[in-house]
Structure formats: C-alpha cells, structure tokens
Amino acid sequence: MIIIFILLTQKGFAQKEANQWISFEGSGLDFNGDSTIAVAFPSDMPIWRCNASICDKDGKLMFYTNGLDIYNRDFQLMKNGKNLNLGDFSFSAIDFYDTAKHFNE
C-alpha cells in the first residue's frame, strides 16, 4: 500500500513529442516547463478545424499542420508541404507517426 501511494504522488514524466501545441493563428501552448504557458508563434497559417504538431524527444517543435499545409520548426512551409488536401480543411483528426528517419523532410 505504501509503494502504491508513493508511486501515485510522484510527478509523471513522459515523452515530450506533444509538448507544444499550435492553435489558431499564431498562438499555442507550451508544456515544457513546470506549468503550461500560452505562447505566440510567428505563423499566419489558418487553423480552423483541425491541426497537429509534433516535437522531438526534448519537447522542441519539429513541424505542424492544419491538414492542408505543413510548416517546419522555423515556421516556414516545408518542401512539398503545400496543398496536401485538395479539398477544404479536413474535419478529421490528424496524427504524426515517428519513422525515426528523415525528421526534417
């Protein structure tokens, strides 16, 4: 019982791949510190319906998308990252998968 109590009261640490969220136009949340902070990003990409972002193992932003375009950590459109969805912005969820290769492509 004591071991369970000790385990439940400890701060949990997890992978940091989801530590930065890009939302709306140039705003987001950063979960890297002890508390969550609102941040401004130099991005004018419209994010209305869906979005996704992924960070490296240290919680640094790698890239993000609105379901139509993909931008890199420097907030620049990635190579071949324009108009990936030929229709309107997607209502569906977006997810990134780590292939452990080609992180900047």
What do these coordinates show?
This protein has 105 residues and is mainly β. 8% of the residues lie in helices and 23% in strands. The strands form 2 sheets. A 3-stranded antiparallel beta sheet has the order 1-2-3, with no helix packed on it. Strands 4-5-6 form a 3-stranded antiparallel beta sheet, with no helix packed on it. A hairpin with a 5-residue loop joins strand 4 (52-55) and strand 5 (61-65). It is globular, with a radius of gyration of 16 Å. It starts with a helix and ends in a 33-residue tail after the last strand.
Tags for this model:
105 residues; mainly beta; three-stranded antiparallel β-sheet
User: For the terminal residues, how far apart are their CA atoms?
Assistant: 49 Å
Mean pLDDT: 75
Number of helices: 1
Number of domains: 1
The succession of helices and strands, N to C, reads HEEEEEE
In percent terms, what proportion of residues is strand? 15-25%
Most strands sheet = 3 strands, antiparallel
Describe this structure in a few short sentences.
The chain has one helix and six strands.
Topology, please?
Elements: H1 2-9, E1 20-23, E2 27-30, E3 37-40, E4 52-55, E5 61-65, E6 70-72
Antiparallel strand pairs: 1-2, 2-3, 4-5, 5-6
